[in-house]
Amino acid sequence: MRGADPRIVLGLHRSRHERRLLAGALDLGVTALDTSTNYLGFHSHQMLARTAGDLLPAFAVSTKVGYFQRPGGTQHSLDPVRLRAAVEQTVKDLGREPDLVFLHNPEHSLNRAGSNQRDVLAGACTALDDAAAAGVCAAWGVASWNPAPLPHLIDPTVPTPSVLMVRAGLLVGTRTLESAEALTRAWALEHDQVWGMSPFGGAGSDAVWSRFDPRVFLRDGRRFSRAQAAFRAAYRLPRVDTVAVGTDDPAHLRELVGALAGEVDDRTVQEYRRLLKEGPRAQPA
């Protein structure tokens, strides 16, 4: 199956949720937003509805459930009842059904499930699958920061998500890349069903990007900035057709949209992955 053209989703992690950013995204043709119940101190959905409720119909909105507020902090849970309630609360807070709801970092709780990990994961996925079937959301997915514990749990008892979101980019270690690909295969997902996130590994302004020139990963790299090249390469590490990226700067978002015109040199990517795998033992996760 041929992958779709590369797409950008505006991620709202650490975002100030300013109206000017959302309006600027629409002007650039970025028509997808990604948030979570726990973003902006568990107020992301309400803030979006309050500051840009009239703009939201123009966006495909994805969000995540799995983290819950409690006195003194945050709790992660895969309890199906809590997850279903969180999806229903999302509809109330946004004022609309989300287009996509991710199960947020299921690995966070699975390490406490012992021998019942598969059953716990299946129950959580079934809760979101049932929510989508009931029309509470249009579709559901899984977003995993560390997918390593998940591939061996997948069997016919675990429903298949519409979308898988994993870390992507040049700062992702080989173990995470391989785990993401193994999970993609376990669910038999196509490339256009896999999203990348955190393509700069934190911030595009980090010092690593001034010491390393990622334009080598593009066939016509000199036409682009280092940030653009790093962003475009993220679509091949692992192979994804959509990347969620956060920014509060419309100019930065415009720069990233311009990066989509770049052509990735897949031979360079494969050589990079070979070197990454054969490199020092202490590799990033």
Provide a short characterization of the protein structure.
This protein is of the alpha/beta class and 285 residues long. 37% of the residues lie in helices and 16% in strands.
Keywords:
about 280 residues; alpha/beta; TIM Barrel; 8-stranded parallel β-barrel; 11 helices; about 15% strand; globular
Topology, number of strands:
10
Q: Major sheet: order of its strands?
A: 1-2-3-6-7-8-9-10
CATH superfamily: NADP-dependent oxidoreductase domain
CA distance, first residue to last residue: 30 Å
Element-level helix/strand string: EHEHHEEEHEHHEEHEHHEHH
Mean pLDDT: 93
**Mind telling me the CATH class?**
Alpha Beta
% residues in beta strands: 15-25%
Seen as an oligomer or otherwise, the chain set is: single chain
Structural class: alpha/beta
Count of domains: 1
Gyration radius over CA:
19 Å
> Quick one: biggest sheet?
8 strands, parallel, barrel
Do you know the CATH architecture? Alpha-Beta Barrel
Helix tally equals 11
Give the helix level as a range of percent.
Answer: 25-40%
Choose one word for the global shape: globular
The parts where pLDDT drops under 50 for at least 5 residues are none
**CATH domain topology:** TIM Barrel
